[in-house]
Specification:
single chain; alpha/beta; Metallo-beta-lactamase, Chain A; 5-stranded mixed sheet; globular; binds zinc ion
Length: 286
C-alpha cells in the first residue's frame, strides 16, 4: 500500500499490489472525511491505523464515489453506525440488488472475503449535496458515466476533484460499462459525456489535483489527456475498421496501430484493451 500527501491534510492511499484501488483521507478540523473504502478489510486496515494514529476512533464521514465493491465494502469489519455514509441514491439500490443476486458468486470466486458485509449508504441525494466539515467544503455532484450512480466530489478550499472511476490513472483499465449485468443502464457514450463534464470543471473550477478511483496519477491535465486520448483513439480505430469491413479478430489488434504516441508503453493491459475494442464494436454495430 502506498500513501501520498496530495495537498494540506489530504492523504491518498493506493493499493499497488491489487488493482491500485484508491482511498483518500481528508483530516478536517472536525475529524477525518474518507472517500471510498477499498475492497477488503486487509486494505482498509491501513487506513484505519492511519485514522487512529491521527487521534480519531474512525471516520467522521465516508463518501462512496459509486457502488462497485472495490470502493465500498473494505470497512465492513470496523464499521460502526456512528459515521454517516454519503452516496448517490442509486448506490443503495445497486448495492441491494448486488447483495441479493451476485454477492454469493463473488464470495465463491474469492473476489471478496467470505465474511464480507455490504455497508449501505445512510445519506443519499439525487443531484447535488454539500457537506461541510471544519474549513473544508465537499460538493457532491451526480455525474454518471462509469455507473448509473457515479458522483464526483469537489473540495472547495484545496480545489481537489475526486472523480471515482470516470477517469483512470491507467486509462486502459477504464472498464467500458457494463462491467456487471446490473450496470446495463449505462453505455460507453455516457462515459464520454461524463468525461466532457469533468473537462469543463477542470477549467471552470481551477482544479488543482484530480484523484481517480484507481492509481496515483493526479495531474488534472495529464490524467484527462491520457483518458481522452485512449477513449478517442479506440473509438475512431474501431469506426475505421468497421468501414474497412472488419467484423472479428479484435483480439489480434496491435495497440501500436491504435495509438500514435504510446503513452502507455509497458503499462497497457492488452486483455482489457481488446475487451474495450470488442465492447465499442458491439455498441457501434448494435
Ligand atoms: Zn468502478
Amino acid at each position: 500500500m502506498k500513501m501520498k500527501n496530495i495537498v494540506e491534510n489530504i492523504y491518498l492511499f493506493s493499493d499497488e499490489n491489487s488493482r491500485s484501488e484508491n482511498v483518500t483521507v481528508i483530516l478536517t478540523e472536525e475529524g477525518p472525511v474518507v472517500i471510498d473504502a477499498f475492497n477488503s478489510s486487509e486494505q482498509w486496515k491501513v487506513v484505519d491505523a492511519f485514522i487512529k494514529e491521527a487521534g480519531y476512533e474512525g471516520p467522521k464521514a465516508l463518501i462512496y464515489t459509486h457502488w462497485h465493491l472495490d470502493h465500498t465494502v473494505g470497512h465492513y469489519l470496523t464499521f460502526k453506525e456512528n459515521y454517516p455514509i454519503y452516496a448517490h441514491e442509486k448506490a443503495k439500490q445497486y448495492l441491494s440488488v448486488f447483495k441479493e443476486r451476485y454477492l454469493n458468486r463473488f464470495i465463491a470466486h474469492e473476489i471478496v472475503e467470505p465474511t464480507v458485509n455490504i455497508i449501505f449508504p445512510t445519506h443519499t441525494f439525487s443531484n447535488t449535496y454539500t457537506l461541510s466539515k471544519g474549513s473544508y467544503t465537499f460538493e457532491l455532484v451526480y455525474i454518471g458515466g462509469h455507473t448509473e450512480d457515479s458522483i464526483i466530489i469537489f473540495e472547495r478550499k484545496t480545489r481537489v476533484l475526486f472523480v471515482g472511476d470516470v477517469l483512470m490513472s491507467h486509462p486502459d483499465r477504464m472498464v467500458v460499462p457494463p462491467s456487471l449485468p446490473i450496470d446495463y443502464g449505462v453505455d460507453y457514450m455516457d462515459l464520454f459525456k461524463s468525461m466532457k463534464k469533468i473537462k469543463q470543471r477542470i477549467q471552470s473550477d481551477s482544479v488543482s489535483h484530480i484523484i481517480p478511483g484507481h492509481g496515483m496519477k493526479t495531474d488534472p491535465r495529464i490524467l484527462f489527456q491520457q483518458n481522452e486520448e485512449y477513449f478517442q483513439s479506440l473509438h475512431s480505430f474501431v469506426q475505421t475498421e468497421i468501414q474497412k469491413g472488419r467484423r472479428e479478430d479484435w483480439e489480434k489488434v496491435n495497440p501500436a496501430h491504435v495509438f500514435p504516441q504510446p503513452w502507455w508503453e509497458g503499462a497497457l493491459d492488452k486483455q482489457q484493451f481488446h475487451v474495450n475494442l470488442i465492447k465499442i464494436y458491439q455498441y457501434l454495430t448494435k
